Amino acid sequence: MVPAKATVLACSPSSLSAAVGTEDGFVYFLDIQDVESPHSVHTAYLSESPVQHLLYDQRGMYLLVGTSEGHVFVINAKPSSLFQILGFIALNIHSQIQIGYCVVTFTDKIIKKAFGIKSDFSSSPNLIVSASFADERGRLRDAFIHKFVYEIEHALSSAVLNFQSNRIYGFCNQVPYICSYLLPEKEHSGICILKPYQKVQSKQYGSGMLSLSPHGLWLITIAKCGILCIRDIHTLETFVRCRSHSHQGHGIQSVRISMDGQSILVNGKDGSTLVNLRWRQFGGNLANEILEYSQQLSTYLKNTMDEENDYLSLAKKDSLDLGSEPEHAVEEVLSMYLSMYICIYHLAIIPVACLKDVLSPFQAIKNEVKLFSNKRKEIKRGIKALAKTVSILDMMEENEAVDNIAKLEQQEFGLDLEELERLHDESEEEVAKIRKDAEMQNLAKRYLAELIKEECWNSMAVKGRALKLQKEIVEVQSAITLVKKHHEEEDEEEEEDGTAKDTNLPNYLLGSLSTDFRVHTSLLSSQLELHSREEKINQIILLKDIIYKVKTAFNSEFDAAYKQKEIEIARVKEKNVRIQEIVLDLELEESVWQPEFEDCEKPERTLIVESTEITAQRHINPWQKAKTELLVTREMERLLLSRGPNTRRRALMDMMGGVLEVKKEDILRMVIPQPAFLSKPDALWSEEERKQFKAYEKKVKELNEERDKYRKSLETEMKKLQNSIQESTQNFDEHLKRLFERRVRAEMVVSQEELKINNLVFSLLLDEEISSREAFLNNYLARKQEEKSQTTEAIRKSREDLDMYKEHYDNLLAEDKVLDRSFKKEFSEIPSHQVDILYKLFKRRPRIHKQKVHSDTTSLVPFGERPGSGKLNKDAFAQLMKAMDDLDSINNMPEGLDPSVWEHFCMTRRAKVENEQKVKQKAAGLIEMVAFLQRRTEDDEKVQHEIEKVFHELILLQEDKVKFQLNLTIQILLKQGQVELENFQLLLDYSDAILINKNIIEDLNSVIRTQGQKKVASMMESKEIHKGIFQIEWEHKKMEMEMEDLNQKAWDIQMLFFSRDRQKYLNEPNYETLIAIQIGIMEQTIAVLDKVGLKDTDHYNSSSYNNPNNSFFFIPGIGSTLTCEKIAKERYENMMQHQKLTKISKEQAEQISILQAEVERLRMKTFPALVQM
Fold it and tell me: What stretches pass through the bilayer (predicted)?
């Protein structure tokens, strides 16, 4: 319908039409009175740039169109005006624009408010159309359109203007805020700086868009995060928040709200998901405002919509009369000719008032030609002068006049034909290369398509198909899983006869319902006997074969149902032919139901590309175009010849109604011609004419009776055919429902078998894991045993070496002791005091400086000298001998000792020192050997401990292996409702579980049930008794409380203060009259007192004048007056206090009554309310 790619869509409020914008700059107006088959009624070409935005005003009078180049067009949206283009405005901003209530756009921190129009579009559209508001090019004049430029602090990704045109709402692009800006009331020129009036956090990330509700009181915000928010236009507070799309699909692209606000349509960006949001609770002031506004607007648009829909119907009728566009190439040329006639037709119906608008572009071109005619003449004169300057002839003449060395050849002044031919060849080669590349790409795509088809379709033995009911939406798919062709075929000898279920195990021990599909399970081993690995592998293979057989059995039933549906559809189509004939004969407006296969039922249709699926324009070669034109010419000639004069056919139509024999089917179309005399009055008829009229009436009556009989027979036949179709359809649907239940059961069987396979595979993997662990432990044990033998041998050798070394050490130690004991015997000849001195010298040893060797230094130098090495011992012995030389010096000899004795002494002492040194070395070596033996012993014990640990693990592993081989996981079928387990009490340990006969459990349950019933009966009896006791106790307590309340009331009555005034008020019948009398008496008394006081005052005044020396005097009248006033004032204060206290007492009485009621309520709440049963 729309040849180019659509970019935006908008629906008109004033008519059942829609506008679609495309990438090539067209706007297509569609008639959507028939939603299932909309068609284009008008096309408007606006610009070469894509159409980005379409927006109708709320009354549907005008359409605003925004393009990517920054132009905004105004179009009359009424079909009655033929969608006239009123003009456009150029914003000169090549960026994204948005059209809201007005057209706004933004770049860097600038907002341009377009359509600041003082004229009222909605009030006087005819005035605007008739006025000259656009120039010859269609651009709206500056006097009609006012532009205002504003600068703001944040760049906006979206902005809208409210309905009062005094505030702008913007969605900030770089900061997470939504701002509102107040527009200045006065007009200005240049750039005006706006500051945010309101600024709230959006709580949405990513770029967003704003839009207003139809009544202008809701602000709808969408963003890249996929969240839709609805805010109050005045406070910007969010009262609705909904996530409709995922942020992974780049959120929401667009949103539209219905006129009554009850539905919100949200469209995703990358996911192509369309979501319809509706209110769960929609009422109160929130709904009243928008519903009232929508009702008013609907009432206003009702008459306008009826009128405009009539114009759409006329346009639709005209387009239908002109025919539809053909499908093939021959008919494409016909459509070209038809389009020419359509254009002429539409030009013919254009009003005369619009011819001026149609011819205005030509007038504009003519005016521009006149305006720039002088400039064109100047440019032409310059071109001619330049041509004269660089004339070829002049250049050739100059060339003849120059020297031979500078002269050019004659051919160099002509065209370079070789270069031209070379360029032509290069272009041909480039075209051939591009064509070859395109062919290779197409070939690669076809090869890839063939590979995919071969792998995913042709290699399948059973293609995935489905069957649907003819009246209900129930789908049955064919194969549960697709089976490859190379699957092993089932041998004919193994096919079942379908009568017996050869199995030795019941279904609940078999673990599946595969026997319901007549599948042999006699080869399966019992689940209680699967101990070895080979048995489990064989069982898995047999279970897979059972799954294949179940699928094959179901697919055979599915194929039979599929063939049955094909037969049923063929039968229904045969009957529909006759039903269609009957409908035409009876002139009924009924539609005949035609059953068809859907794409899911015939998936091979997906692999066939239809011509309607190709959106690209078809390329027609010139020879094909010529051939098509020739065929079209011949077809038109044939049609003209067929419509030529045909005398025979016309005579047959005039004489016999176009048929040679009247059939029974033609009885409904038969008409008895009226006699010619019926045009005369009845009084002028003759007897013969009257007889003819009676015969005519008789024939008409017989024909009507025949018609009625034939009509009834046709209706009976049609009902019979329809009932037959309905019955066959219902039978097939019932069969398909049973097949669907069969499929569900087949899926259940397959799932059961797959569960058994998974359990067996898990046991095999577990067995393999245990075997690999056992092999690892055996290898590890062998290595440790070998290591144990090596450590034992090393300990034995170390003990032998230690014994030998210890024996040498004991010998040296004995020799050292012998030398020490034989010292005095050797020097027994000299005096005893000299012997003591020599013995002290014999025990004396020289001091040798020992080098300290740090352990960390020795650890850092592994190849240095160790503390007990031979080199260090030799160095220490040399230092000792050197020190002994100092001790053997003659200077150290005691006085009076013979030098020969000293020499003998020195030799003996040196032998003793050498022997001690050997003993020390042997002791150090003995310590090292003992330490070495200890380390070897510890290593041997460690190896022995590891061997014992491995032995223990091997024993546990073997126990686990035996346990897993004996404790098998079996699958048991249970009926629904046999097992009831509470939540969070599922037992997972079955180590002590045993199998018990069902009868024992049932007997035990019956005994438990009987005892339980008895216990419940006794508990009910006890409950009734306790209930009576509680009720009696409660009534007793209630009476006690009532008694306490009555006593309290009596006490309050007795203690109530009752004054005399109140008693007088109650006892005196005319209390008001008595009070009035008392007041009169008091007023008379006061008047008498006043007179007496005046007299006394005069008397004392006269006496004071007569006796001026008296400074102090007494005035009794004034004192009595003051006393009366004081008494009256005290009485007044007492009365006011009495009234105040009375008021306070009343308030306290009310509070006390409220508190008593609350106490009574709490008291009744404390005790249970026992209702009489």
Answer: none
